[in-house]
Amino acid sequence: MFGMLAENKLQRGEADNRVTSEGRGEADNRVTSEGRGEADNRVTSEGRGEADNRVTSEGRGEADNRVTSEGRGEADNRVILEGRGEADNRVTSEGRGEADNRVTSEGRGEADNRVTLEGRGEADNRVTSEGRGEADNRVILEGRGEADNRVTSEGRGEADNRVTSEGRGEADNRVILEGRGEADNRVILEGRGEADNRVILEGRG
Question: Which among 4, 86, 102, 132 has most CB atoms closer than 10 A?
């Protein structure tokens, strides 16, 4: 298995948080390109994530910190494209964030780690669709992080885990749509994910 990982140019995980091009992740936080993640923080390109921090391209995330492209996130730190977040760190497309780390499509984040689609994030872990992410846990769409697991679409990472739709977010646990992240809990829908808990939903980080 390690030999296969070494040979696979697109998947370079080697210890825990391994990634295999055939969908046979073996340790925690594994990611498989065939949608058969098996441990925590798993991500599958077919939308069959099964443990914490899962991300699925089909919108069927099931545990904490889930992200789904169809808007059916269900646990903490959830992010959905349809606006039906339900627990803390919720995100709604209609601007109805309700707990901490909330995200609203109208830019009315209210607690920490808020995310707004109009670029008016106000606390930590903010995310703005206009590329003005300012605090931790930021995510950008182009993926050229520069500091710890950072990803920036423009190469201007600034804080931890930042996220910006225009590519100026810049630190740990970043998510990129082009797949050039670089650390643990990687998600590779295209075989290039690389940072912590990264998500590449075909342009729907």
Answer: 102
